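Input/output pair, single chain:
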Amino acid sequence: MTRTLCAIASLVLAACAHRFEAGDRDAIRGVIDAQRAAWNRGDLDAYMGGYAKTDALVFTSGGHVRHGWQDALDHYKARYGGDRRGMGTLAFGILSIDAVGADGAVVLGTWKLTDTEHAGDGVFTLVFERRAEGWRIIHDHTSASTP
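Output:
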């Protein structure tokens, strides 16, 4: 009886195990696309939906390291004002999405911000984690191109 239970438990665990698949890349692209759309309509709260809502979130840009979802949101609101006029138009280019185990991914991409006093462009690296709510960014390292 014990051997049978172990075999059943092994099958159940194997069936529940995650693997990184092509659909995961599509889901991650979907998060990034939703962020771009939210930014371009001036909705910072929806933009932040792509990030894990945790104090463990790490966001680096402009030579600063910020910790936590709320700190990142506060920074965005202070810099861009949280409305369409100050935020401009954001575009992303995804260069690669690489799996890190079954529940992680690293995204390398480019960004370009226009139609705002904060216009610029650069590159980013995002670390995504598969969470109960879906794929979310847990680490964002963004840098601007030099003028």
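Strands lie at 58-61, 64-67, 89-99, 104-114, 120-131, 134-144. The helical segments are 2-16, 22-40, 44-47, 69-80, 84-87.
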